[in-house]
């Protein structure tokens, strides 16, 4: 990594000597604080390159989706729709936990049973809703 850092510093110094960095937007202003203070130093450069290219880690994408589902859940009053959203949230939460490598390690059969129960619940709510109409 030190070789890469040295190469980057060398190229920056050469560009500065040619005057290519003189009129950049925000020149002289403090750099914005990044949210990568908790990211290990050895992966910060790679993360920044991916971020600048428009890519985000799967965990970040899933957290965004989870947040969006929560907002949607808060706005929905229909029980069937709420149950479907909760099932999707549970699936996303479990996937996120597995990405973290957290303590939640569920056997596949247990996950299948959870999905079956949620599907059964949605079916019951659909039947009840159809009967009330």
From TrEMBL:
InterPro entries: DnaJ_C_subfamily_28, DnaJ_homolog_subfam-C_membr-28. Keywords: Coiled coil. Signal peptide: none annotated. It holds the Pfam family DJC28_CD. Residues 59-86 form a coiled coil. Residues 7-73 form the DnaJ homologue subfamily C member 28 conserved domain. The keyword Membrane does not apply. The keyword Coiled coil applies. This is DUF1992 domain-containing protein.
């Amino acid at each position: 990594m030190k070789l890469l850092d040295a190469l980057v510093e060398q190229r920056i110094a050469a560009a500065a000597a040619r005057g290519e960095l003189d009129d950049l937007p925000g020149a002289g202003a403090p750099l914005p604080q990044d949210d990568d203070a908790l990211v290990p130093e050895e992966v910060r450069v790679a993360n920044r390159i991916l971020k600048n290219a428009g890519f985000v880690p799967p965990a970040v994408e899933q957290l965004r989706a989870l947040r969006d589902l929560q907002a949607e859940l808060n706005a929905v009053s229909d029980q069937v729709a709420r149950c479907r959203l909760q099932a999707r949230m549970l699936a996303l939460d479990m996937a996120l936990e597995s990405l973290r490598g957290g303590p939640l390690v569920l056997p596949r059969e247990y996950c299948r049973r959870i999905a079956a129960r949620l599907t059964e619940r949605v079916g019951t709510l659909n039947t009840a809703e159809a009967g009330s109409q």
